[in-house]
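re: the backbone from monday

yeah here it is again, tokenized this time
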């Protein structure tokens, strides 16, 4: 059943994209539409390249400060998805990409993704430390104390 829903959603997405392209193309013309699609794709490449550089610098800075760069990684993931969506020809994908690029919606989505990941992936800190601490330590007579 989930695969059927996926294909129905994919079909509706493609149908909406083609409908929007035909509507915009009929109002502004075919050549301006093609130039607009090329310009938006170039913008997508620029976003991916710029965000990649910014991500590397941000991750280096956070690691140098002794922090875990989760915020930088998730933010760069959203920018990469937005860049790929800008590369895909169509206005619906561009609207989704713009939603990922806006700070307000990106912050909301980051919170949602972190919440979903925290619920799906069990994090057990300290369990192994307790198990290792409970093990008896024995030394054989042939080993030195170093």
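seq for it, each position gets an aa:
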């Amino acid at each position: 059943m989930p695969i059927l829903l996926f294909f129905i959603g994919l079909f509706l997405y493609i149908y909406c994209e083609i409908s929007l392209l035909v509507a915009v193309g009929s109002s502004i013309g075919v050549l301006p539409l093609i130039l607009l699609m090329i310009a938006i794709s170039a913008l997508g490449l620029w976003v991916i390249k710029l965000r990649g550089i910014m991500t590397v610098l941000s991750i280096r800075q956070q690691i140098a400060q002794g922090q875990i760069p989760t915020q930088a990684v998730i933010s760069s993931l959203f920018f990469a998805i937005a860049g790929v969506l800008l590369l895909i020809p169509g206005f619906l994908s561009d609207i989704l990409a713009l939603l990922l690029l806006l700070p307000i919606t990106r912050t909301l989505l980051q919170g949602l993704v972190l919440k979903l990941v925290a619920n799906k992936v069990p994090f057990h800190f300290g369990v192994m430390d307790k198990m290792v601490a409970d093990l008896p330590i024995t030394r054989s007579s042939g080993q030195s104390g170093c």
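DSSP finds six helices and no strands in the chain. The radius of gyration is 24 Å.
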